[in-house]
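Dear colleagues,

As part of the handover before I leave the project, I'm documenting each prediction I ran so the next person doesn't have to rerun anything. This entry is a single chain, and its sequence is reproduced below.
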Amino acid sequence: MTDTSTPAEAPPAALHQDAELIAGVVAAAGRGMVDRETVAEVVALCAVAGEHLLVVGPPGTAKSEAVRRVAGQLGGRYFEYLLGRFTEPNELFGPVDLRSLREGRVEFETAGMLPEADIAFLDEVFLGSTAVLNTLLGLLNERVFRRGGTVLASPLRVCVGAANQLPEDPALAAFADRFLARVFVDPVADARLEELLEAGRRPAPVAHHGGGPTGPGGPQDRLGALDRLAVAARGCELDGVTPLLASALRRLRAAGVPVGDRRAVRSQRLVAAAAVLDGRTVATARDLWVLPLVAPTADTQALARDALGDLIEKAANQSLTHAAEELSRSSAARAERLARTGAALLADHRGLPGGRDSRLRLEAALREIDAGFAPADLPAALAGIRAELVAAVAPS
């Protein structure tokens, strides 16, 4: 995974700063969405890893909204398109350049199109024609757009494909395999419908597509932080975790989870990305929670979580708290998520006039902490957050 052509690894303090910035971006994107935090976090994970993501779920489950919000918070050039059987390649990659054509050259105008996007979202991705998918295949694999006389290095960090279901056509298998990570979504559970209705009444976060302020924390800096983390991930030290990773992959195969050689090798990129988003340049067992993402179906992802059990029981991530918890089901990941959620609620509570709604949210966070951990088992960071929550809801 070490890339000798890249700069030396970032100092730990700078790495933590970039990881925290991206964590804040993802949290802002997920704010107001119900049960879609994992989608938002895995988009960021894949962007750092240099891999692509497939989101599968029924229509109307906010797949596109989650991606759109992350892209809007990160900034940069964003491209989105709904594919159909009759989608022409020009609709994605740009029209023929007529001036070049008059001179006898077949070239394409790619400005504002997929080849020049930083982040892309393709809905109903498996409905594309053979011509569309073949061109996409090269772009996704090599980050180079080749069509006619046009050869263009693409800045694409991540392409997110969405579908209502996985394709059954074996001819699409090679294309589907280019999406290393898979996230499966269902409609929001009945118990959270009130929360969903309330969230639906709130405005979405303001997007920053195409640039904006360049100062610290601005859209340009956010994309820069993403790129610095990607460089750090390419230089991440994986030797120490390789035996555990190999053992985990053997377990997946033994459990009936199909993990081919290409997916096995590329899973290391997700492990490395998880490490740097946790503020480290050395991967550990803490980062193996990403492995269920490479399982191709919802059923095999469940098998993967069960098969990896003890290997990921202590997995967690400071930046991607929801995704780490959902994929590992570990108490360490739950503690990270509750600590971050509690800290955010306390910050909101202090910045707003006291009210019943704010107090109810703090009390709900306290109940979730107490339901998940016995007092003797509370990690120190979460114990501190719990004490602050208790003080905040105590009668004045």
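The longest helix spans residues 331-351. Residues 1-8 have pLDDT under 50 and may be disordered.

All the best with the project,
I.
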